[in-house]
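Example (one chain per record):
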Amino acid sequence: MAMNRSMRKKHRGIYGNERGMTVVVAILIVVVIVIVGFSTLMMVSTDLQIAGNYGSTQKALFSAEAGVNEALSRLRADSANPITDAHPSSATWSVYIGTDVKAQGKG
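Predicted structure:
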C-alpha cells in the first residue's frame, strides 16, 4: 500500500494539480470569443461607414451630372433673347443660366 501511494505521487507531478485548469481553459475560450466578436463588430461598423460614404458620393455625383445636363440643355436651347452680361473681367460679373422668360428679365 505504501508503494501505491509513492507511485501515485510520482505520476501526479505533471497532472496532479488539474483542478484549476478547467477555469483557465474556460477563461481562454471566453477571451478568444470576445476578441473574435469585437473584431467582427469593428469590421461591420467599418463596412457600414463605407456603404454610407459610397451612397453620399453617388448622390453628389448624380446631382452634379444632373446640373451639368440641365445647364447644357439650357445653353443649347434656341433663345430669341440671349443673356448678355457684363464682361468677364468685371468684378461684378456673374453668369445666369435660364430660359427665355428669365433672360428677358435679366437683359
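Caption: The longest helix spans residues 21-76.
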